[in-house]
Design a protein that fits this description.
Blueprint lengths: L2 H10 L3 H12 L8 H28 L21 H8 L2 H4 L4 E4 L6 H14 L4 E5 H14 L2 H10 L2 E5 L11 E4 L5 E4 L3
Parallel strand pairs: 1-5, 2-3, 3-5
Antiparallel strand pairs: 1-4
Helix pairs in contact: 1-2, 2-3, 3-6, 7-8
Length: 195
């Protein structure tokens, strides 16, 4: 078997996952234990997994989340924020994204609205949706500058291309003690700290 030329061809074709799966059984000297179909299946599974991981990493990098480590699994439902576990986990399934609905996270300053919005953003990236996180004051500055220097159409295109747009507003005092989640509308967006 011509191992090195085969590995070189896999690398040239951008099949790093298949190349890694090809190398492993050969290095463990159990290549003869796997049938040709099993080995091919192993290589294809590895390639699919590596490409999916790369796609999620790229989506998260382009999202520029304020809290990139935030994830749905780390939500503390015991904290006194008024979050309903069942509703939150239903939203984590992403049906609201497919239905082109919005998600508005409201609550008092310091209750974790921005973190929660980033957790939903990360989940959306896992579900293969493009995500973009922007702070509203910065967005207004960028829009004003873009109008002046001619980048306005490109900026609008960038904002509308995102399947999930997270708008994080400046914190404002709120009379409520809890963070609440409301959903419905016609375009996918999360507004954290809405005025």
């Amino acid at each position: 078997m011509l191992t090195n030329p085969t590995l070189d061809q896999m690398q040239t074709l951008g099949l790093a996952g298949m190349a890694a799966a090809w190398r492993e059984p050969a290095e463990r000297n159990n290549a003869n234990e796997l049938s040709r179909d099993e080995w091919l299946g192993l290589m294809l599974d590895r390639e699919v997994a590596i490409r999916a991981d790369k796609r999620v990493r790229n989506r998260l990098a382009s999202a520029r989340l304020r809290f990139p480590e935030a994830c749905i699994e780390d939500i503390d439902f015991a904290a006194p924020r008024g979050l309903d576990r069942r509703s939150t986990m239903a939203l984590a399934q992403g049906e609201w994204l497919k239905s082109h609905e919005n998600l508005i996270v409201t609550g008092q300053t310091g209750t974790g609205k921005s973190w929660l919005a980033c957790a939903f953003g990360r989940q959306a990236a896992r579900l293969d949706h493009s995500v973009l996180y922007v702070r509203v004051p910065r967005l207004f500055e960028d829009l004003a500058l873009a109008r002046l220097d001619g980048r306005f159409p490109r900026l609008i295109d960038k904002l509308t291309r995102a399947q999930l747009l997270i708008l994080d507003a400046e914190p404002t005092p709120s009379p409520t003690n809890s963070a609440s989640i409301c959903s419905k509308s016609s375009r996918n967006a999360i507004a954290a700290n809405p005025p």
